[in-house]
Amino acid sequence: MNECKIEGCYKPIKAKGLCSMHHQRWRRHGDPLVTKVRQSLYPHTCQWLKCERPTVSKGFCSKHYYIKRTLVLV
To answer: Which residues span the domain enclosing 64?
Structure first.
């Protein structure tokens, strides 16, 4: 099986000689080596009572988003 053409990456090829991760980075940013973290324009704090951590998703920090998501599913 052929491997990704990026040095040090041994994942199988998806398209254009790149693995799925590097191909997606190439499509999004034009460069398969770019890594960007998505951030909101304005930093917000968690909606959870007495939590001052920055938000990650839907107004909650990563810890409280996980708790809210697992409590809703149960």
So the answer is: 39-74
Q: Is the dihedral of CA 30, 34, 37, 40 positive or negative?
A: negative
**pTM for the whole structure:** 0.51
Specify whether 32 is located in the same domain as 55: no
What radius of gyration, in Å, describes the C-alpha atoms of the chain?
18
- Are 13 and 19 spatial neighbours (Cβ–Cβ below 8 Å)? yes
In percent, the amount of the chain with pLDDT more than 70 equals: 89
* CA atoms of 64 and 48, how far apart (whole Å): 7
Nearest-angstrom CA–CA distance, 16 and 43: 37
**C-alpha angle 13/19/23, rounded to 5°?**
120
